[in-house]
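Problem: given the chain below (409 residues), write out its structure.
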Amino acid sequence: MQFSYRGKDSKGILQRGSLAATNADAAASELLRQGITPLAIEEQQQTVSLSDRFERIPLFRRKVTLDEKIVFCRQMYALTKAGIPLIRTMRGLAETTRSKELGEVLEDVTDRLESGANMATAFQAHPGVFSDLFVAMIHVGENTGMLDDAFKRLSEILELERDTKRRLKQAMRYPMFVVVALFAALMVVNFLVIPKFSAVFDKLGADLPFLTQVLVGTSNFLINYWYVMLFAVAITIVLLRQWVQTDQGRLTWDRYKLKIPIIGPLLELITLSRFSRNFASMLSAGMPVTHALSVVSDATDNAWIAQHIREMRHGIERGESLLRTARNSGMFTPLILQMIAVGEETGSVDDMLNNVADFYDEDVDFGLKRLAESIEPILIVAMGILVLILALGVFLPIWDLGAAAMGRG
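Solution.
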């Protein structure tokens, strides 16, 4: 922030000017350091450009990307391991990062550290950038004196999440392209092709087959009431998003999302793999089991699975074993339960959970490779049915008219 000040120097001469500081107290301290006794300090009202105003609106504000957070964690791991003071490290990264948004966040975190807050609390002030899992890992690293190890684990977790999202996008690229092309073809046929044929049929006065009547009626409805359809779709999307944002709506949506053919089981595997990996990281960092389950449930992006994880925590709080709560959750296969049992017996639950995550990752890799192959036949059949309907609807009347003309001849 920019402050204007009025004060007297050591000779009693009145001084005026401006300086940048985080707050008025910091500005006063800086003036005293310069030998100026402040009489008045006022914050200057800065002019905000149109682009800056748009950036302050959440809809237009650019978010800190996963890649930027990974680079930040790697840099923090290297610098903290080298023994560089924390505040100096954070201030340097805030000034050198290419992301304006991340730089602003790191500046605020550094200011909070200078005011006496611990790092976990400073990160917690930015929930849109740093998740509960991120904050919990930093908290554990601070308390155990292994902050560099916490940043290393976070970079590995974020890298796995990035790679999974990237592979999922690559697998869905072809199906989405086909669906968009199919939708565009439908619009072209309904708005351009069928109206031309409809005008020809009306001039000839022929009786149209039922399939052709359906196509013509659909085309007329879209041409005359397209704005109603557009408005209805927009309202439906808005209401659906508001419903999903409620606790019960998100729980229901996430529950049935896992039952979608082909995609649902894959999403479940990805979520369980992430849960196992994060839970293992929490345990290996020395966090108690109940606290680790609570943090991991909050970091899970599927409310239905998160509810099962919280039930596991409640079961452990009642005195049940991790194996029993995992079996009661119904989320894990017998092989996974057996590995958890071995982990409890040998005291290496974190290692066994990492093995569980490796099993899930293998299934995810196989599922992602087969995703496009599984969806492709469905899309081909859908396109074939659509082309058949359009062809019969358009050409059947022409064939009937041709047969009638040949009969009259």
